[in-house]
Automatic annotation (TrEMBL):
<feature type="compositionally biased region" description="Low complexity">
    <location>
        <begin position="70"/>
        <end position="84"/>
    </location>
</feature>
<feature type="domain" description="Aspartyl/asparaginy/proline hydroxylase">
    <location>
        <begin position="210"/>
        <end position="364"/>
    </location>
</feature>
<keyword id="KW-0560">Oxidoreductase</keyword>
<keyword id="KW-0223">Dioxygenase</keyword>
<dbReference type="GO" id="GO:0051213">
    <property type="term" value="F:dioxygenase activity"/>
</dbReference>
<keyword id="KW-0735">Signal-anchor</keyword>
<protein>
    <recommendedName>
        <fullName>Aspartate beta-hydroxylase domain-containing protein 2</fullName>
    </recommendedName>
</protein>
<dbReference type="InterPro" id="IPR007803">
    <property type="entry name" value="Asp/Arg/Pro-Hydrxlase"/>
</dbReference>
<keyword id="KW-1133">Transmembrane helix</keyword>
<dbReference type="InterPro" id="IPR051821">
    <property type="entry name" value="Asp/Asn_beta-hydroxylase"/>
</dbReference>
<dbReference type="Pfam" id="PF05118">
    <property type="entry name" value="Asp_Arg_Hydrox"/>
</dbReference>
<dbReference type="GO" id="GO:0016020">
    <property type="term" value="C:membrane"/>
</dbReference>
<dbReference type="InterPro" id="IPR027443">
    <property type="entry name" value="IPNS-like_sf"/>
</dbReference>
<feature type="region of interest" description="Disordered">
    <location>
        <begin position="64"/>
        <end position="95"/>
    </location>
</feature>
<comment type="similarity">
    <text>Belongs to the aspartyl/asparaginyl beta-hydroxylase family.</text>
</comment>
<keyword id="KW-0812">Transmembrane</keyword>
<keyword id="KW-0472">Membrane</keyword>
Length: 382
C-alpha cells in the first residue's frame, strides 16, 4: 500500500510538474541524452528506492538505551534494598545520595513492565523498609495489571522514598504547601485545600445528613452503656479523646458494626467510602471538655475526612491549614487532614463531649485506576 501511494505521487509529480519544463529549461547531460528512455527509467528507480529508504528510516522508532529490557532484570535500587537500613543514631554518609537506574542485559525480545515508566529515574541508595515495601507493592501491582494511569502513583512512591530516606527532592516536592505534610503517602498534582465544598461529594454528604437521626440514636444507645474498651471503644491520642470504630484502617470491626446496623448500612451505601485499604476508617469520635489536639498531619492527601456533627458544643473549633471552622449538628464538613490541623474543646463539663461521625472518602481528583492501585498497595494487614 505504501509503495502504491509513493508511486502515484511520483507519477503525478513527474507528469504535472517536471515534464512541461524539464526539457526546455534544464539541460540534460550527454549520458542522459545517449541513454534515452531506459536510462531515465533507471534514474526514477534509484530515486524511488532512495525515497523508500528515507521513509523507512524516518518511521522506525528510536531505541532508548536507558530503558530496562526485562521484567526479570533488577535495577540498582532493587539491589540496594538488600542492604541493612541506616542506623538513625549515626549521621548519613557523605557519598552520593542517589544512583541511576542501570540497564540490565537480558535475552532479546523481552520487554519490562517497568519500561513505560522508568528510564533514568534516580533512587536513594538507602531507603527505609516501609518505603521499599511500598515500592515493591507498586511493582507487583503493575506486573499483575498495568502501568496505565500509574504516573502519579509512581511519582508519589518516589517522593515517599526520598522523604523517608531524608534525601531532599526539591524538584518533585517544591509544589507542596509547607503546611501540608502527609507522613505516609503523598500523591502529587492533586488540587489541595483545607476544606472542600459540598459539591465534591454531594451524594455521600446528602446520604449521611439524611441518616443523621438514626446515626445519632445508635450512638446515644452505645454511649449510655458506657465507654469501655471491652465494649469496643478505644483511646486515641491525648486524654479526653475516644473512638468507637466501625472500620479501622480498612478492616471492618464486626462487633461494632453489629451494634450499629443502620449506621453500617449507611456506610455501605456511600459511593466513595475508603473501605478496602488501610488509609480508610469510619467511626464515632469523642473529644471531652478542655481537651486539645495539637498540630498534626494526616497520613495521605488521597482522601478527605467527612465529619458529620452529632453533638457540637459552641466552644469547639477545628483549624485546618490556618482556616478555622466549627461543626454543626446534622451537617457535614469535608476536611483534607493532610494539612496541619488542631482541634479544641473549650467548653465546660456541662457541655458534654464533642461527638462527630467521621468517614474517610476518596479525594475527588484521584482516578479510578489510582484508587484500585492504592487499594492493592495499602491492603490492610489482617
Amino acid at each position: 500500500m505504501k509503495i502504491v501511494i509513493i508511486k502515484s505521487f511520483l507519477s503525478f509529480f513527474h507528469h504535472k510538474l517536471i515534464m512541461p519544463w524539464s526539457l526546455d529549461l534544464v539541460p540534460l547531460p550527454p549520458c542522459a541524452l545517449l541513454g534515452g528512455p531506459p536510462l531515465s527509467g533507471l534514474l526514477w528507480t534509484v530515486l524511488l528506492l532512495f525515497l523508500w529508504y528515507c521513509y523507512r528510516v524516518g518511521s522506525d522508532p528510536p531505541s532508548h538505551s536507558g530503558m530496562l529490557k526485562s521484567g526479570s532484570g533488577r535495577s540498582s535500587f532493587s539491589r540496594s534494598s538488600s542492604r541493612s537500613p541506616v542506623d538513625p543514631r549515626h549521621s548519613a554518609p557523605k557519598a552520593s545520595a542517589a544512583i541511576t537506574m542501570e540497564m540490565v542485559e537480558e535475552e532479546e525480545g523481552t520487554e519490562s513492565y517497568l519500561t513505560p515508566v522508568l528510564s533514568h529515574a534516580p533512587f536513594p541508595t538507602e531507603a527505609a523498609a516501609e518505603s521499599k515495601k511500598l515500592y515493591r507493592a507498586l511493582q507487583e501491582y503493575a506486573k499483575r495489571y498495568s502501568w496505565a494511569g500509574m504516573g502519579r502513583i509512581h511519582k508519589g512512591t518516589f517522593i515517599n522514598i526520598c522523604v523517608v530516606s531524608q534525601h531532599l527532592c526539591h524538584c518533585l516536592i517544591n509544589d507542596r504547601p509547607s503546611i501540608q505534610k502527609p507522613h505516609l503517602f503523598y500523591l502529587p498534582d492533586v488540587p489541595s485545600i483545607p476544606f472542600f465544598p459540598r459539591d465534591a461529594h454531594r451524594h455521600d454528604i446528602e446520604v449521611l445528613e439524611a441518616s443523621y437521626p438514626i446515626i445519632l440514636a445508635e450512638f446515644q444507645a452505645m454511649y449510655q452503656r458506657g465507654i469501655d474498651t471491652k465494649l469496643g471503644w478505644s483511646y486515641q491520642g491525648p486524654k479526653g479523646q475516644t473512638v468507637f470504630p466501625l472500620y479501622n484502617a480498612g478492616v471492618c470491626v464486626a462487633s461494632n458494626c453489629r451494634a450499629c446496623p443502620c449506621t453500617y448500612r449507611t456506610l455501605l451505601s456511600l459511593r466513595t467510602f475508603i473501605s478496602s485499604n488501610s488509609l480508610g476508617s469510619a467511626g464515632f469520635w469523642l473529644l471531652g471538655p478542655g481537651a486539645t489536639l495539637g498540630g498534626a498531619y494526616g497520613p495521605t492527601n488521597t482522601r478527605l475526612r467527612c465529619h458529620l456533627g452529632l453533638q457540637t458544643p459552641a466552644q469547639c473549633e477545628l483549624v485546618v491549614g490556618g482556616e478555622p471552622q466549627c461543626w454543626s449538628e446534622g451537617h457535614c464538613l469535608l476536611v483534607d487532614d493532610s494539612f496541619l490541623h488542631t482541634i479544641s474543646h473549650n467548653g465546660g463539663a456541662e457541655d458534654g463531649p464533642r461527638v462527630i461521625f467521621s468517614v474517610d472518602l476518596w479525594h475527588p481528583n484521584v482516578a479510578a485506576a489510582e484508587r484500585q492501585a492504592l487499594d492493592y498497595i495499602f491492603a490492610p494487614e489482617q
